[in-house]
């Protein structure tokens, strides 16, 4: 063995050797946040012989897709009254709850339809309270009525997958 340092030619050969690459560590793939479309309540109707009213939502902007789903009779009545900005002779449950929210200084920022499970739509209220913003699970009909009952109606947001996919749609975090 020689204690001689490599000459210039040998140094070039050492430098020209390819470096061994470290194995790449795959970063976990984060799901994209859901894309929401702004919708309007187009109609609440009753097609006989069905015993359930149908709620029709339509996109506010093109391509103007619609989403139609059934609700209970009392919920459909409350939603039809809210859509038409009509008051009842005595406060209905939604009207009472809206007064409680207003007195507690809680605003409904939006209602979101976030999924579908075995034909049942899943929704949440996005509210702004004095202590901050929160999301609260709710039935779509309740969320829609409260959104429409706000002094300035809150937007109705629908996960775009509900307009594109049939069957169950699992809510995404976000």
Which properties best describe this structure?
single chain, Bifunctional nuclease domain, globular
What does this structure look like?
The chain has 174 residues and is an alpha+beta fold. It has one domain: Roll (Bifunctional nuclease domain), CATH 3.10.690.10. Helices cover 26% and strands 30% of the residues. The chain has 5 helices and 7 strands; from the N terminus they run αβββααβββαβα. The protein has a 7-stranded mixed sheet with strand order 3-2-1-7-4-5-6. It is globular. The model has no long low-confidence stretch (mean pLDDT 86).
Most strands sheet: 7 strands, mixed
The geometry reads as: globular
Q: Total number of helical segments?
A: 5
Q: Which percent range fits the helix content? A: 25-40%
Unreliable residue stretches: none
Class inferred from helices and paired strands:
alpha+beta
**Mean of residue pLDDT?**
86
| N→C terminal distance | 65 Å
The amount of beta strand, in percent, is 25-35%
Q: What is the CA-atom radius of gyration, in angstroms?
A: 28 Å
CATH architecture annotation: Roll
User: What's the SSE pattern?
Assistant: HEEEHHEEEHEH
The CATH superfamily name is: Bifunctional nuclease domain
Any idea how many domains?
1
CATH C-level category: Alpha Beta
Number of strands: 7
Strand order of the largest sheet: 3-2-1-7-4-5-6
Q: What is the CATH topology?
A: Bifunctional nuclease domain
């Amino acid at each position: 063995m020689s204690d001689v340092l490599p000459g210039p030619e040998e140094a070039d050969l050492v430098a020209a050797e390819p470096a061994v690459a470290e194995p790449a560590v795959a970063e976990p793939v984060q799901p994209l946040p859901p894309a929401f479309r702004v919708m309007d309540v187009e109609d609440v109707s009753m097609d006989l012989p069905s015993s359930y009213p149908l709620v029709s939502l339509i996109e506010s902007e093109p391509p103007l897709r619609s989403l139609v789903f059934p609700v209970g009779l009392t919920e459909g009545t409350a939603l039809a009254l809210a859509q038409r900005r009509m008051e009842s002779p005595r406060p209905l449950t939604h009207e009472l709850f809206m007064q409680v929210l207003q007195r507690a200084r809680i605003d409904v920022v939006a209602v979101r339809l976030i999924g579908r499970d075995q034909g049942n739509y899943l929704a949440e209220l996005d509210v702004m309270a004095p202590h901050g913003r929160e999301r609260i699970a709710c039935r779509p009909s309740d969320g829609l009525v409260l959104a429409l009952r706000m002094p300035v109606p809150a937007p109705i947001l629908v996960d775009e997958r509900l307009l594109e996919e049939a069957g169950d749609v699992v809510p995404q975090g976000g």
